[in-house]
C-alpha cells in the first residue's frame, strides 16, 4: 500500500479542507467541502454525540447528497459553525434546489473543548465566523495538529489535534481520513512514545518508531475531565450510495479502536462520517470490503498523525507528543 501524493484526505479528488482557529478561545473549526455535492453516511458509536442534520444521512431519506461536512470544537455551541458554512455556500449558489431557493446541506459534529484553558467568556459565539473562515480557506493542502477543530483538543496524556492520511488501493481507488482527536483515551502506549496505531504506519509518518515491544496491563489513567469526543470523516472516490457510505463509516470505527485506548466511551461522542465523490466505479465485489478495511487503517493513522503534529500553546495543561523524551 502507498499513500496518496499529499497523504491527506484531499488526495480524494474534488474534496477540499479548510481550517479556522481562535487562539484566545483555544478552539476551531474544520470544513470538508466538495467542488460538487457528494454522497455521505454516518455512524455514531460514542455515548454523548453533538450533531446537526444526521437524520437525513440515513439511506431511506430523500436528500442523498451533501454540500459540506463540518467538524468543530465548542460542544453544542460549536454547531453554529455549520450555520456559517450554510450561509456562505448559499451565497455561492450552492444547495438543494427548492423552487427558486437553495438550501445547502451541511451535517456537522462537535467535540468538547470548553475546559481546555482557553477563554470562553464570549458574549457572542465565535463559531459562526469560524465556519465561514474555514470554508473560505478550503484547499488541497492544510495543516495538521493544533489547527481547525484540533486547536484545543486533548487526549488522556497528550495534546490532541487534527490528523489526516490517505491510501491508494490496488484497485486504483483512493481512501482518505480526516479526524479531530479529542479522546478520553490515549493515542500512545502508556509509558512509551509508541503509537497504538504504529502497526498501520506507512513510511515514517508517525516518526518511524514502530510498535511497542511490550504492552502494559494497567488501566488507562486520563488526566482531564472525562468529557471528550473524537470526530472524523473518511472519504473515497469509489462510487458508493448512502447505504454503502454508512457501512464504510461503521467499518472505519475500527480505526478509532486501534488508535485510541479506550474509545467509544459513554461520555464521548465518537462519530465517523463517510463521503463518496463517485468518481470511480466499483468493478469487483471485493472492492467494497477493501474500502472498509482501508478506511479503518487510514483513520488509525490519521489519529496518530493528529497527535504527532500537535504544537504547544499558552495555558496548555498537557504536553505535546514531540516534547516527550526520546
Helix content estimate: 10-25%
Could you tell me the number of beta strands? 11
CATH class: Alpha Beta
- Uncertain segments are none
Determine the structural class based on helices, strands and strand pairing. Answer: alpha+beta
What fraction of the residues are assigned to beta strands by DSSP? Answer: 15-25%
Mean pLDDT: 93
**Biggest β-sheet: count, sense, barrel?**
9 strands, mixed
* Count of structural domains: 1
Mind telling me the C-alpha Rg? Answer: 18 Å
Order of helices and strands: EEEEHEEEHEEEHEH
Shape by Cα distribution: globular
In the CATH hierarchy, the third-tier topology is known as L-amino peptidase D-ALA esterase/amidase
- Helix count? 4
Could you name the CATH homologous superfamily?
L-amino peptidase D-ALA esterase/amidase
What is the distance, rounded to the nearest whole angstrom, between the alpha carbons of the first and last residues?
A: 28 Å
By CATH, the architecture is named 4-Layer Sandwich
Outline the structure in words:
With 326 residues, the protein is an alpha+beta fold. The protein has a single domain (9-321), classed as L-amino peptidase D-ALA esterase/amidase (4-Layer Sandwich), CATH 3.60.70.12. It has helices spanning 80-91, 127-136, 242-259, 286-308, and strands spanning 15-22, 27-44, 51-52, 65-72, 96-98, 101-103, 108-110, 161-168, 174-181, 231-238, 271-280. The strands form 2 sheets. Strands 1, 2, 3, 4, 7, 8, 9, 10 and 11 form a 9-stranded mixed sheet that branches. A two-stranded antiparallel sheet has the order 5-6. The longest helix has 23 residues, at 286-308.
Amino acid at each position: 500500500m502507498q499513500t496518496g501524493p499529499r497523504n491527506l484526505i484531499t488526495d480524494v479528488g474534488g474534496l477540499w479542507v479548510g481550517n479556522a482557529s481562535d487562539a484566545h478561545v483555544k478552539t476551531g473549526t474544520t470544513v470538508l467541502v466538495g467542488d460538487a455535492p457528494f454522497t455521505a453516511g454516518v455512524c455514531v458509536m460514542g455515548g454523548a454525540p453533538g450533531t446537526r442534520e444526521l437524520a437525513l444521512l440515513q439511506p431511506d431519506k430523500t436528500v442523498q447528497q451533501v454540500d459540506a461536512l463540518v467538524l468543530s470544537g465548542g460542544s453544542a455551541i460549536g454547531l453554529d459553525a455549520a450555520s456559517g458554512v450554510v450561509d456562505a455556500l448559499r451565497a455561492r449558489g450552492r444547495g438543494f434546489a427548492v423552487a427558486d431557493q437553495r438550501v445547502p446541506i451541511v451535517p456537522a459534529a462537535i467535540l468538547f473543548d470548553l475546559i481546555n484553558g482557553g477563554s470562553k467568556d464570549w458574549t457572542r459565539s465565535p463559531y459562526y465566523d469560524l465556519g465561514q473562515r474555514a470554508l473560505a480557506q478550503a484547499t488541497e493542502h492544510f495543516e495538521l495538529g493544533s489547527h481547525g477543530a484540533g486547536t484545543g483538543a486533548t487526549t488522556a496524556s497528550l495534546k490532541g489535534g487534527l490528523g489526516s492520511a490517505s491510501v491508494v488501493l490496488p484497485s486504483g481507488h483512493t481512501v482518505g481520513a480526516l479526524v479531530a482527536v479529542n479522546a478520553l483515551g490515549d493515542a500512545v502506549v502508556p509509558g512509551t512514545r509508541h503509537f497504538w496505531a504504529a502497526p498501520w504506519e506507512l513510511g515514517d509518518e508517525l516518526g518511524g518508531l514502530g510498535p511497542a515491544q511490550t504492552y502494559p496491563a494497567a488501566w488507562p489513567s486520563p488526566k482531564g475531565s472525562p468529557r471528550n469526543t473524537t470526530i472524523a470523516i473518511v472519504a473515497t472516490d469509489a462510487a458508493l450510495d448512502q447505504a454503502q457510505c454508512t457501512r464504510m463509516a461503521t467499518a472505519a470505527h475500527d480505526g478509532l479502536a486501534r488508535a485510541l485506548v479506550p474509545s467509544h466511551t459513554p461520555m464521548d461522542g465518537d462519530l465517523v462520517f463517510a463521503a463518496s465523490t463517485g468518481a470511480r466505479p466499483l468493478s469487483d465485489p471485493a472492492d467494497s470490503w477493501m474500502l472498509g478495511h482501508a478506511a479503518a487503517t487510514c483513520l488509525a493513522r490519521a489519529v496518530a498523525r493528529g497527535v504527532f503534529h500537535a504544537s504547544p500553546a499558552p495555558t496548555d495543561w498537557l504536553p505535546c507528543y514531540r516534547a516527550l523524551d526520546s
